[in-house]
């Protein structure tokens, strides 16, 4: 239903080749309003979208003294790239009929309990995102294992890669301006391999430590970077996409939109009652969004239909997250 509020179908050719930004205003008989945004990832990322929306709302309120205008010129941070001998990036499969998305909501108290559960000497203060990501990763591993067991007759936990998108602005030393426009994201990756057939021994604290370790390695890679090597970035992107296409391992991708001030956007009618992500049909992708209270998390999880049936019935997951509860009371 949410797709009806968007100006373009996410998987359509127009979404990838048309306008860089589209906005659709939806008016309801009750007097409510929903504003749908579609932004090209060739032009910007979630940070860029947040900057744009905040500037728009500040302009609507005539708060010019509070404007943090979009800052262009990110291309100057990258060395020139020679495309003459470059191969195109591999294709990423998008199939609405093959994959399904479900919304899981972690309340503030449940997130706090989960953070307490996964605390360890390695990660004494796990973040909300790390805790939720680790649980989702664990439950995806178990769903994949049970799916493989159904097909092969024996329990099998396949090796897996967990990938977190990271904001390059915060990783750079010194940090880049948050209002810098561009698709300035990279990927932190970590892996998990399992010996044995008992899925109950998957260590949730260990998964949190792996996620934290991957993020720390990514930070080290950006230490004291002044100009990014575009050719290296291009090769890394091809390596990453080819890794995602490797059928011998499970790939789980997570993108966090938490802490972006989307709920502060006020065009003059008050702050939004709900801000949501509309999923693109790419397998094994999870997007995390803040709840309105800023403490809970909404996880939009996309999986194959078979794996989703196993994932959404996971008792450990449902002990912390509710499946698609009402948006408002």
Describe the secondary-structure layout.
Elements: H1 13-17, E1 21-27, E2 33-39, H2 46-60, E3 99-106, H3 108-118, H4 128-152, E4 160-167, H5 168-171, E5 185-192, H6 204-221, H7 230-244, E6 250-256, E7 285-290, E8 297-304, H8 305-311, H9 315-318, E9 321-323
Parallel strand pairs: 4-6, 6-7
Antiparallel strand pairs: 1-2, 3-8, 3-9, 4-5, 7-8
Folded structure, characterized:
The protein is of the alpha+beta class and about 325 residues long. The chain is built from nine helices and nine strands. The protein has one domain: 2-Layer Sandwich (Chloramphenicol Acetyltransferase). The strands form two sheets. The protein has a seven-stranded mixed sheet, with helices on both faces. One of its GO terms (molecular function) is acyltransferase activity.
